[in-house]
Amino acid sequence: MNLHKSMTFRTLLSFIKKKCITGSICFSPEKLDYLKKRALEDGTLEKCTTFEALSAFLWRARSQALKLHPDQQTKLLFSVDGRSRFNPPLAEGYFGNGIVLTNSLCSSGDLVENPLSFTVKLVHDAVNLVTDTYMKSAIDYFEVTRARPSLDATLLITTWSRLAFHTTDFGWGEPILSGPVALPEKEVILFLTSDLL
C-alpha cells in the first residue's frame, strides 16, 4: 500500500472512530473582527476578508479536532462568485448562477503548526486563482467530463451570508427561518447571517 492510500485509510478510520456532531455556531461581529485581527497580527498579511479569516479558522480547527496525521493532505473546497470576473461581463440583467469551485490543499501539520495568517493566505490565494480564464476552463472541463471534485479529506464551505433571504416575501410576510432542505455532503459548513438562525 502506498503512502497516499494509507493516509487516506487513516483519515477514513479517524472519521469512523469519532462521533461527528452537527450544529450551529454563532460568530458575533466582535468575534469575526477578532479573528481578522488575529490573522493580521504577525504582519504577514495587509488585509483579509471575513470569509477568508473564518474559513481558515474553521479549516484549522477541523484538522485539530480530527487529530489528523501531520502529513495528511487536507483540502478546503468552496465556491467563488465569478460574476465580476467574466470578460466580457455577463449580460445585463443576468440572474443565474455565476459561481465556480476553487480549493486549497495543505498538510494537516502545516495548518495546525503555522499561525492563522498562513491558512488565511492559502484561502486568499485560492480566491485569487479565479479569473476569467480559470472560470472558462472550469466550465469546459465540467462540460467534457461531468466530473465532481474529489471530496476525500475535504472540508466543503459555502456561504449564503449575502443572499437576501430575509427580504423575500411571497405574499404572507417575511421568513422566520431559512436554510437548505438538505446539505450536499455530510461534512459541509454553511455560512448564514444570524437573522436566519
Automatic annotation (TrEMBL):
It comes from the Eukaryota. The keyword Calcium does not apply. It holds the Pfam family Transferase. One of its GO terms (molecular function) is acyltransferase activity, transferring groups other than amino-acyl groups. Keywords: Transferase. Belongs to the plant acyltransferase family. This is Uncharacterized protein. It comes from Heracleum sosnowskyi.
